Amino acid sequence: MVNSTTLAHLNTHMDHMSTVLSSYAGRDKAIRSLAFYLQLRSTSSSHHSKELLALAKQLSAARLVSRQFNHPGMLKACRQIWQAFDSGRIGDPLEFLTGAAVTGIYTVYGVVELLAWLSDAKLLSLNAARLYKWCLYLWLSALINGIIRQLRIIHRKGIEKSKEDIWTLIGLSCDFISGFNSVPHKFLWAGKLSMRQTAAFSLTASIIGFYKLCCFQPLPPLLKMHILVTGAAGFIGSHTVLELLNAGYTVLCIDNFANAISDEHGNAISLKRVAEITGKPVPFENVDVCDEAALEKVFSSNKFDGVIHLAALKAVGESVAKPLQYYSNNLVASLNLIQMCLKYNVKNFVFSSSATVYGPPAELPITEKSPTGQGITNPYGQTKYMMEQILIDVGKANPEWNVILLRYFNPVGAHKSGLIGEDPKGIPNNLMPYVSQVAIGKLPVLTIYGDQFDTVDGTGVRDYIHVVDLAKGHVKAFDRIKAVGSVGTEIYNLGTGVGYSVRQMVDALKKVSGRDIPVKIGVPRPGDVASVYCDPSLAHEKLGWRAENGLEEMCADLWNWQTKNPQGFSN
């Protein structure tokens, strides 16, 4: 029986090891390391040898149980299968099959480890053949799991460059060898290996395992990227900053309040609320990206790993009335930012593009391969298209750059806290903020522009996406850059893939709010088309991103924001 003093001493050791190791492997590795330490003590010294060996076995058993029956890998694999069926289609057959295989392997692995745990008490008395059999089961299950995991990585990346191929093969080799990690202590206990052999075995496996962690699952502090977010105080910007912080990124936010609200001290109210939600500081500077000198000061004072460029004038109708203002602002701001990135060696660039680059769709759903730049009806859409072309050319001229263009469809909703949401200056240009302001009484009536389109109820159909889902798309873009390293230039649609009509949106908000929303029918505006919705499957395949919120959540979160903030941030 281990006395309380010894237990307290060992617990202190374990807590210390857990703290040291938690950045890359957590308490599981700490328990394994401590168990091995106790084995060394019990073999090299007769003092407390029996109780230390007994405790080592207990710790090993605890490790096996905690490792297998709370295993996130098994849960993740199960979730992939569930999502495949939930979406109504299997999707990628190889992704589905490997997900199913991994689930099966984890299940078998868990059973084998449990049986090994139950056998630990009798392990010393096992004959050599039986012991080798147990170890072989454990090693094979770990090895098969590792191979499948690496095959899934190969498949997901699509391996386009030999460099990636080499690193993946190294990872596969690591899995072969690190599969031995669960074997040595069992050989030691059974007296089949000497202390030196076991120590060498475990040390080799541990070094390879640590090397693998550094190469393929780098330590969180080393992975933390510092991102510059332009237009950060706006609707999409504030939600994106929040999700970046939640994902462990650090940010510097800049905005000139063209589309955002400041307090009396010149601070961004939306970002102050983001800090309140996340409990993390949100650095902010009032900077106009069109001001080259001010922008250079930002770059010279900071080291950025990447940029998310959201800053732009964005009102479609206003862009028709003020085309020069839109071309000047949106293009100059973007060119300044690109020049600073080139000058200060910032090679990761995520751009806020728009579905307007497609113009009137020739066929639905819109994919990333659909024609762009044809029939664009407003200067706002033209500026987005022109910026895409510039960034594509910059990416070609600078192969080390990673450029991801995110084509938004129609963002709506708000954060579930009701602390941040869309607060347009003046009359809202977008449908749902207008509808919610009519519902709460700020505006008298909603005009529906046309009810004779070839749609379910005659009103225009669009692809609406919850702003939180959209924000998470930016995080996934940088996650991909971190994981792959070199992506070149990639383009993704961010939408739900489902279109809703104007009347359906109005009815959904009526249901959520319990308010009457008066409407009147107007004539269609120039350039209005019947339906626009996208195919977002590429983002799901490459980014691992999918919209999680439906129409009800969009409207519920929008109404929650509107009722808590009837005057917007001016409250």
Your description of this structure?
With 571 residues, the protein is α/β, with parallel strands linked by helices. It folds into 2 domains: 4-221; 224-570, NAD(P)-binding Rossmann-like Domain (Rossmann fold, 3-Layer(aba) Sandwich). Helices cover 56% and strands 11% of the residues. The chain is built from 21 helices and 13 strands. The strands form 3 sheets. The chain has a 7-stranded parallel β-sheet with strand order 3-2-1-4-5-6-10, sandwiched between helices. Strands 7, 9, 11 and 13 form a 4-stranded mixed β-sheet that branches. Helix 5 runs antiparallel to helix 6 (128-157). The longest helix is centred in the N-terminal third of the chain and has 30 residues, at 128-157. The protein is globular, with a radius of gyration of 28 Å. It starts with a helix and ends in a 7-residue tail after the last helix. The relative contact order is 0.07. Mean pLDDT is 77; it is low at 10-49, 55-92, 112-128, 156-168, 174-192 and 208-223. This is UDP-N-acetylglucosamine 4-epimerase. It is found in: Peroxisome membrane.
CATH topology of the largest domain: Rossmann fold
Summarize model confidence as the mean pLDDT. Answer: 77
CATH superfamily caption of the largest domain: NAD(P)-binding Rossmann-like Domain
Helix content: 55-70%
Q: Could you give a short account of the major beta sheet?
A: 7 strands, parallel
Name the shape in a single word. Answer: globular
Beta-strand content estimate: 5-15%
Structural class: alpha/beta
Strand order of the largest sheet: 3-2-1-4-5-6-10
